[in-house]
Amino acid sequence: MSDQASFGSVGMTDAVSAVIEELQFMLGEGPCIDAYEHVIPIAEPNLSAPSSRWPGFTPPALEAGVRAIFSFPLRVGAVCIGALDLYRDRSGELSYDEHADAVIMAEVVAQSVVTTQAQVTSGNASFRTNERSIRPKLCTSSSRNGLGSTRSERR
Questions:
Q1: Alpha helices (H) in the chain, listed in sequence order
Q2: Which residues, at least 6 apart from 100, have a Cβ–Cβ distance to it below 8 Å?
Q3: How far, in whole angstroms, is CA 154 from its chain's centroid?
Q4: pTM of the full predicted structure?
Q5: Where in the sequence is the domain holding 100, given as residue range(s)?
Q6: Which of 22, 33, 64, 138 is a good FRET partner for 82, with 20 to 30 A between their CA atoms?
Q7: Are 25 and 6 in contact (CB under 8 A)?
Q8: Which CATH number do you get for residue 127?
Q9: Model confidence pLDDT, tens digit, residues 57-95
Q10: Domain for residue 42, yes or no?
Q11: What's the pLDDT tens digit per position in 101-121?
Q12: How far, in Å, CA of 117 to CA of 132, rounded?
């Protein structure tokens, strides 16, 4: 992460997603930050297991109901523009198929971000935004089945 990069959320689907993102922005630690900085998938299938990985992030994330969290870098070629975080309300590894789906989802999200940025920059966007342009930053969403996602992009 460059000293000039700033992070923010593109959108969220629930309160847990908002907590996850706000914690990472405020603390500068968490799976999304790690996936972005190291450009590798990050997995914490049991967030309640003793660990010094994210000392500021973990307790409030557990309090919010997060039990497992996974993050995948958003890449466009060799450039990492952010990360896609997945969380669930129960502990457990991602299955092979879930992991493969997450990798594909991260690719789709990265391409979507680039396409949207190009549309906004060229003035061809078909939606309105409070920002002058959508730039890489963090974003979260979730689903009822206990697996949710967080998308991060660097501004």
A1: 15-27, 31-38, 58-63, 96-122
A2: none
A3: 11
A4: 0.76
A5: 15-153
A6: 64
A7: no
A8: 3.30.450
A9: 999 999 999 999 999 999 998 889 888 888 999 999 999
A10: yes
A11: 999 999 998 888 888 777 766
A12: 10
In a domain, 2, yes or no: no
**Domains of the chain: total:** 1
Buried b (16+ CB within 10 A) or exposed e, 71-107: bbbbbeeeebbbbbbbbbbeeeebeeeebeebeebbe
In a domain, 117, yes or no: yes
Query: What is the average per-residue pLDDT within 7-25?
Result: 78
Phi/psi at 7 (5° precision)? -120, 150
Asked if residues 10 and 32 have their Cβ atoms less than 8 Å apart, the reply is no
pLDDT at residue number 118: 75
**13 secondary structure, DSSP code:** S
Structure tokens at 65: 């109901």
Other beta carbons within 10 angstroms of residue 63's beta carbon come to: 9
Q: Beginning with the edge strand found earlier in the chain, give each strand of the sheet holding 139-141 in spatial order.
A: 42-44, 68-76, 79-88, 147-153, 139-141
Half-sphere exposure in the Cβ direction for 75 (13 Å, CA): 15
3-state secondary structure of 32: helix
Tokens of residue 90, six digits: 């129960």
